[in-house]
Write a structure and sequence with these properties.
By secondary structure, this protein is mainly β. About 5% of the residues lie in helices and about 30% in strands. It contains two helices and 19 strands. A hairpin with a 3-residue loop joins β13 and β14. The longest helix has 12 residues.
């Protein structure tokens, strides 16, 4: 067999470079050096790009490791882990078995992080503090939480506690002490449900720092209910004699109504028990004392 210029394996010998550079290109700016114990430095085009030490491979400052795929049990960056912005169909942080589910950022420097699931945007976080679930925007919100329930008619917010076990599982889970749903499935509105093992299902307790004693149309109260009606794309006050507040009783029927004129309507067999400016019994006692001439007999008659 003719000799091809390659030595047989038996003729190769080890060489001790003793820290010298191994030059790899014609202009001598791409080299491998081992001038430090247990360390190998790689220089490419005159720049110190990479370094090997025991169990560690380091890309030096200004260098980049580009790969089609990286398999690792743990990645521990000493600085920032920088990913591409990505898109809803190809998130920048994703999962091996579901490549269109993960986190991405596609708004330049606007500080928006989005969550994609199966190629559809499901969550949004903005630098202003708005969080959107199953929605992508809310023109009327800067900071807050927006939840889009889609066509679902069940609970949109649930409150739970391990201290609670009311047992009303036909309506909600036993550790749920409150939830919010739509009042009407097709038209909206808010229904607030409170569930308890005791006697108070819902308690509204306003805390105020200023009191108002004005008795009139301009008076303000610690707790207020204000009903308005749609007018075009805006709102208007309720018309006269319109039901403004109702209390439901037996079988969900309305038992008590306050209308927009301030009139009270109730379905009951007892007196309304309305408060007035004076104590009626004291007035009757005084009237009796003034009109009966026999004072001893007056003392034995009482309207109480």
């Amino acid at each position: 067999m003719p000799y091809l210029g390659v030595k047989p394996a038996a003729e190769f010998t080890s060489n001790d470079l003793n820290g010298a550079q191994l030059i790899l290109d014609a202009d001598a700016d791409t080299t491998i050096t081992a001038d430090t114990d247990d360390q190998i430095d790689i220089r490419i085009a005159g720049a110190d790009d990479f370094q090997f030490t025991a169990n560690t491979f380091t890309a030096q400052s200004g260098s980049t490791i580009a790969a089609q795929a990286v398999t690792a049990t743990t990645i521990t960056p000493s600085g920032q882990l920088i990913c591409s912005d990505g898109s809803v169909s190809a998130p920048s942080i994703t999962f091996e078995a579901d490549l269109n589910t993960g986190l991405y950022h596609d708004d330049g420097d606007s500080g928006v992080i989005r969550v994609a699931m199966d190629g559809t945007e499901r969550q949004l976080w903005t630098n202003g503090g708005m969080v959107a679930l199953s929605d992508t925007s809310n023109a009327n919100m800067s900071t807050g939480i927006t939840i889009n329930q889609g066509a679902a008619d069940n609970i949109i917010i649930a409150l739970k506690s391990s201290d609670v076990a009311h047992g009303m599982t036909g309506q909600l889970e036993t550790d749920s002490y409150g939830h919010i749903t739509k009042a009407q499935a097709a038209s909206g509105g808010v229904s607030l449900i409170g569930a308890t093992e005791g006697t108070q299902g819902v308690r509204i307790r306003p805390y105020v720092t200023t009191e108002d004693t004005t008795k009139g149309s301009t008076g303000q109260s610690a707790c207020e209910i204000y009903g308005v009606v749609k007018s075009g794309i805006s709102l208007d006050t309720l018309s006269g004699n319109v039901n403004a507040l109702g209390v439901l009783g037996t079988s969900g029927h309305t038992q008590f109504i306050v209308d927009s004129d301030g009139d009270v309507h109730y379905d009951g067999t007892t007196n309304a028990g309305a408060w007035d400016d004076y104590d009626d019994v004291e007035l009757l006692d005084t009237f009796r004392s003034l009109t009966i001439t026999d004072k001893d007999a007056a003392k034995n008659i009482s309207f109480r």
